[in-house]
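Obj: model holo form, ligand = glutathione.
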Amino acid sequence: MATYISLLEAGAKFDVNIINLGKNEQSSPEYVAINPKKKVPLLVADGRGLTENVAIQSWIAETYPEAHLLPSDSWERLQAVSYMGWFGAGIHPHITRHFKPAKFCADEGSHADLKAKAKAAYMEQLEVVETELNDRTWFFDHYTVCDSYFFWIYTRALAEGFDLSGFKSCTAHNERMRERDSVKSVLAHIAS
Ligand SMILES: N[C@@H](CCC(=O)N[C@@H](CS)C(=O)NCC(=O)O)C(=O)O
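Output (holo structure tokens):
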């Protein structure tokens, strides 16, 4: 979802192949042949594959510079990479543990505890994002790939049933994102 939004924001021409994780399509022989990590997203450009949100988002911003999807200041660009690294390694895994506790713990009786801990860890990190955003419209002084990526981080937790209404800046960011044509079109595609 995050990379799809950024590709639209960039004005890129591209095809989308939806990999149905519910049907375990990320483990199909066809997909594993192009991405042995068995994860989405995967970007294929000029016959080469690129994985990891942080790398794909950076590729989009660098390949379509006219879209200004990263800050121009070098310190701020690295700050953007830092945000994306944090979203990917420091926040996303908590959602995964909440969604699929059986993947991490064989003892079914411990799943509720694992989920509670994953949710608490997510909430703790979101509090930090809340402080960082602090009523700002975007993570930087204009829209960047960090905004696309954070949209997923927040929206996916909503789907897990987390009550995020107390995070005012994050919630306003999510509502603002939903007004963008890119997000409307991605949500419509996913729902169809
Ligand atoms: N570090 C990777 C993580 C990607 C990831 O975990 N993707 C999830 C979906 S949001 C996935 O493919 N899950 C399939 C699975 O774990 O079986 C990135 O940032 O791109």
